[in-house]
Amino acid sequence: MDIYHAVMLGIVQGITEFFPISSSGHLVILQNLLGLEEPQMAFDIFLHLGTSAAVIIFFRKDILGLFRGDRKTLSFILIATIPTFIIGFFFKDAVESFFRSARIAGYMLIVTGIWLGLASRISHIREGEKKELGPANSVMIGISQGVAVIPGISRSGATIATAMLLGIDKEKACRFSFLLSLPAILGATVLKAHKIATHLASAEMLSYLAGGVVAMCAGLAAIKILLVMVRSDRFYFFSVYCLAAGILVLITL
């Protein structure tokens, strides 16, 4: 993979990781369009490390607060991570085969669009009925994050939408989703460590690093934009986009 393709994929990853429109789905589709037939799993991990850095930079105060006194939120993150890990560990081999199919990504983008649309609608109906995270809600959000290993199902979209459907404040749902991404990405990195090690000494290393840095920069911008859109009740825009993108993929591919 050359630097041009790495930078392009880094921009896509940085934007789609935090916008609830599925980074994995867009990467699978773009890889197909660019003729990258084999899954670039090690490169995907570098991109996710870049977006993890964006979360750490943007939410550094929240992260420090988790270890300085906000033990309740920290415990909820750990609880939510358990079902995500179980799903990722036992189904990782089956899910890897999905990364070869842009058609699956198209179908799952439509599912994401419906999911986001329902969450946006129901959250308006239940406006003012705000609930706390809690252990049970954390498990539900963790399960939704686990399901998002399928390309086309947005991780941020699934977790934010599930939290909204459970009656949790939209902005709190966003922040929890971003913080929850860190252990999930770390777990994926550990599971794919052997593939990363294989490529560390390769000629593609510069491209991998470039993609990761670009993903971090694009991710910082995407987080800020998403929070603004959530505060201004424009979350449903992403539902329309996912539906349109999924249908377009199925028609063209």
The overall average pLDDT, rounded, is 85
Order of helices and strands: HHHHHHHHHHHH
Instruction: Please indicate the count of domains.
Output: 1
Distance linking N and C termini:
23 Å
- Tally of individual helices: 12
Low-confidence stretches: none
Question: Mind describing the biggest β-sheet?
Answer: none
Assign a percent range to the helix content. over 70%
Strand-pairing-aware structural class: mainly alpha
Any idea what the radius of gyration is?
Answer: 17 Å
% residues in beta strands: under 5%
Q: In total, how many beta strands?
A: 0
Large-scale geometry: globular
Key descriptive features of the protein:
253 residues; 0% strand; mainly alpha; single chain
What report would you give on this structure?
There is one protein chain. With 253 residues, this protein is an all-alpha fold. 81% of the residues lie in helices and 0% in strands. The chain is built from twelve helices and no strands. The mean pLDDT is 85.
